[in-house]
Amino acid sequence: MGGREDVNLDVDFFKKINHSYGHDVGDEALQVLAKAGTLITHESKLFACWGGAEFGAALLGADAGLARTIADIPRRCLVQRDFEHTWCVKPIPFTVSIGEVIRETGERDVNALMRRGDRAKE
After folding, report:
1. CA nearest 116: which of 48, 49, 56, 73?
2. Measured between alpha carbons, how far is 102 from 76 in angstroms, rounded to an integer?
3. What domains appear along the chain, each with residue ranges and CATH number?
4. H, E, C per residue of the chain
5. Chain CA centroid to CA 5, Å
6. pLDDT digits (tens, 9 = 90+) for 56-110
7. How many CA atoms does the CB half-sphere of 112 hold within 13 Å?
């Protein structure tokens, strides 16, 4: 296994959520996505906010197929509303986009990796 599968997730149309519903609701959407990310059960996962409405997951030893399956866990959780969360303001529906990339051995530029993850979503 020469690389590591990385997954890039972000809230679709996040600026529109903030402008339409307010920043408090936008913040809660990020909290819900973070909760959904905790459902990733891969033993070597790292799931973290990368900035704004973007999150990344590092899945050491996962191939593309396994990463796709793992990345689909938070997406399905959000679609099915299968999570515990008491909204402070009001619940809003939102979707996420997911892009998977493989970090090659020796590759160290995380920003480039995240940009590739963004392009993989298109």
Report:
1. 56
2. 22
3. 4-121 (3.30.70.270)
4. CCCEEEEEEEECCHHHHHHHHCHHHHHHHHHHHHHHHCCCCCCCEEEEEEECCEEEEEEECCCHHHHHHHHHHHHHHHHHCCCCCCCCCCCCCCCEEEEEEEECCCCCCHHHHHHHHHHHHC
5. 13
6. 888 887 887 888 888 788 888 777 765 666 777 667 778 888 888 888 778 888 8
7. 6
In this prediction the pTM is 0.74
Buried b (16+ CB within 10 A) or exposed e, 86-117: eeeeeeeebebbbbbbbbeeeeeeeeebbebb
Residue 17 CA: distances (Å) to CA of 1, 70, 118: 40, 26, 20
What is residue 120's predicted lDDT score, i.e. its pLDDT? Answer: 82
